[in-house]
């Protein structure tokens, strides 16, 4: 008898739909199907694989609005952001695939009467385990390079967003050969079974603790890993910063996707000489954000589930009990929302500064010297992103911050084909960029004497 995963609107718990939970005993059989399919898929030319993927992604285009509504209902984000997420997945495959093709083409070296080829060959079966906060994008960014490289993929989406993930796979599979892209549904039990199965690579986006568990379970067979884990990104505002731009960025970055974003700004360090002006500006910007359901033209949507909201409330209560001050917002336990909030006098040992928060909260502290700001910013097990606003000494400070991606007087968006990469416990391996694309391959060196 089948078990089902039911999906509910996080705003009002309205039932949206359901999918069949994958029997853990069937996962090894699905992997075997992927292995069989991969033998044929890898033998296609890379241009043939790209043609399949471009045609498959085009199936999303006439369904963009329908898929976006489903994404908003299931995850809670506003419709414009959902349209952007779906549209990106529908339209980016041709140029993303071209980047992968260029990165993994065979390199040839000749000298001393010898010719050496450096090939980038398919690994086999790739397990993609994706999160709920960007349920299409974060899966898509891993699925496309894996498939272009000649691997087959088994997607295990979050149990919070199974419907939109299933819809994505169903549309792709109208075009792709059988079993090149498969999907399984379930919770951590199915996830662990997939990790323990005979896959060759695990590409995971999620929490640090889950990443550690995956690494432990994958170690017995030394499986390849690409993992983007948690973040606790700092923002440093120097005394010579453009205070207005810094305040606006602090709010926008903290509130984006209702704060449910791995590179959300979660710790704000402001020079003591400008902190009062900065805080007043932050409050004024925060007041401009509207909270509500996806169909109410709101900026801030619901928290994904009650468990996650309780974690946030615990962090806020811990901070307030230890002396932090709520400058703006309200602590509300009665509905699905965390309302836009500004909290100041946050200390390093408070949970708001140590644990991932994932909410629309600007958490602020002060510093007196640049060395103190650097020390505080680096005082975290995470190291995904970091941002600095200021003029003098910004590059020197950036060089000392322990983060994979940094922005100076802007966010983390970069120029060129650069990777999405974290340091410390925010990541293991990375994706994007030529080097990132190559992580979905096995390097083979063939040398021949003439």
Model description:
- The chain is of the alpha/beta class and 450 residues long.
- Helix content is 40%, strand content 22%.
- The protein has 16 helices and 20 strands.
- A seven-stranded mixed beta sheet has the order 12-13-14-11-10-16-17, sandwiched between helices.
- Helix 6 links the parallel strand 5 and strand 6.
- It is globular.
- The relative contact order is 0.14.
- The mean pLDDT is 97.
Concise overview:
The protein is an alpha/beta fold and 450 residues long. It contains 16 helices and 20 strands. Helix 2 packs antiparallel against helix 5 (93-104), helix 3 (64-75) packs across helix 4 (79-91) and helix 3 (64-75) packs antiparallel against helix 7 (162-172).
Query: Which regions contain 5 or more consecutive residues with pLDDT less than 50?
Result: none
Kindly report the spatial arrangement of strands forming the biggest sheet: 12-13-14-11-10-16-17
Rg (C-alpha, Å): 23 Å
Largest beta-sheet characterization: 7 strands, mixed
What share of residues is helical?
A: 25-40%
Beta strand count: 20
Task: Round the mean pLDDT to the nearest integer and report it.
Answer: 97
Q: Which overall shape is indicated by the principal axes computed on the Cα atoms? A: globular
Structural class: alpha/beta
The fraction of residues in strands falls at: 15-25%
Distance between the termini: 64 Å
Number of helices: 16
